[in-house]
Every structure is written in structure tokens, then in C-alpha cells.
């Protein structure tokens, strides 16, 4: 039986334009011109005999017909993408592309990945470290580990763990002429910063400590470098639970004080809803939760 299919090469352009409600952004995503998107959508409308977008001078919006059609096209493209990945992975091996921050990758994920490989030797993991939002289809990312409020439109977002923020340092700073015994002793030591939203000003104020410049000391763009600087005894850094747990467990870092602040953000595992049907994604998801639960 013949299928009444639309022009298939126009569907990605229509789906991107419908998702962004902007032809220029759709063009940027697909690496084509604005005119190419416009022509593809017009061709689709002509073939269907219906208007999918209402066009204004500076904006577009979906018509009552275009809105449900866009949802159906998106689901169809997602299913086709999953089927294609499944088919090709059987031939060329299975590669899982993970996006996360450099701090989480360097201080938590990478040191544990050998256990995932031990259990799933046929799945190769590629880790991309970036703080920007992931375009899963455009960037070729399968799953992302993100730090935030957990609201990611159109994506599955699973809570991994919350965090506390507290000072950590090398054990050597507990000794010497100015040992760290109480928060006020921080005046004798270098403060290390990594640009995190809960900074030394907030922690010192919550601990009731005055007379210490929270902007003094060492500053890094990378949480990994900031933590490593503390490990080397260069000063005291505000550690986050997930980023310092391994170093605390091995004794490379210690907590000189009990006082901690609860972080306003948490870690989430984020992926397109249909991705969980892939064996590699399900395996990584289950392994990730098994690693976090014991801690």
C-alpha cells in the first residue's frame, strides 16, 4: 500500500523552525541559510495544501494545524534517529556521548568510569566538558549531567543528588604555626575561588566570620584546578560534595570545620525521552545511579 508521505527532506527544517519559532535559529542549528528553511517550509505547505505557520514581520507561530503536525513530525524524527543509532551501533560498536562540566568530569565521573567499562566493555564513552545547554540532536550527545534546577523543556530530567558547600584543605594546613581549628583561623590562609555562585562572602557571613576579605587569594575558572590547588596545600577552597568526595575519602583533603551551606542547585541526568530505549543509555543511567546511591 502506497504511503501518503510528505517531502521528507523538508521535515527537519519544519521541525527546527517549529521548535524555535524562528527561521534564523533553525537555519543556524541545521547549518543552512534562512532562505533554505523558508523554502523548505513553503514547499511542505504547498504539498500538504495547508498553512503551518502564521508569519508576521519579526516572528512566526504555528497554526492550529501546524502545532499538532509539528509534534507528530518531532516524534517521528526522534524515533528514526533512535532506530538509526541502534542499527549503526550493531555494525560499528556502541559509543555513548556524555556532556557534563569539567569539574564533575574531572573530580567525580572520570575516576569511576573504569567500573562502567568493566561492566560494559562493548560501550565506548566519550566525555564532552561544557557548561552550555546541549542540543542533543545537533551535538550528537546522548546524555548530559547538568547542575541546575532540573527544568529542561522537552527532556527527561532525573535528580541525581543535591550538594552542600563547605571549606576543604590539605591535611598539612591543620598543622604548622597557624593550624585551621576554627573559621576565624582562615585569616591566616589563602582563600581559593572557582566562580561558584555560593562564594566565600556567603560562607563567611553564614559562619559569622568578619575581617576577612572574601575576594582575596587565588581564583580559577575551573573547579577541577581550584580543588587540585587545595590538594597541593595552596590554600582553602569551598568544596562541593560531589567534587571533593573522592579526595576526602582518600585523605588528600579534609574538612577543618563542620559548618556547611546547602547548595541551591543539584545534579540531574538529562536526555531526550526516547533515548532511554537505547541499551547504552539505559546501561549508563543505571550505572550512574548505582555509583551515587552508596555515597
TrEMBL record:
Residues 6-63 form the HTH lysR-type domain. Keywords: DNA-binding, Transcription, Transcription regulation. NCBIfam families: PRK11139.1. Belongs to the LysR transcriptional regulatory family. The gene is gcvA. Transmembrane segments: none annotated. InterPro entries: LysR-type_TF_proteobact-type, LysR_HTH_N, LysR_subst-bd, WH-like_DNA-bd_sf, WH_DNA-bd_sf. GO terms for biological process: DNA-templated transcription. Gene3D superfamilies: Periplasmic binding protein-like II, Winged helix-like DNA-binding domain superfamily/Winged helix DNA-binding domain. This is Transcriptional regulator GcvA. GO terms for molecular function: DNA-binding transcription factor activity; sequence-specific DNA binding.
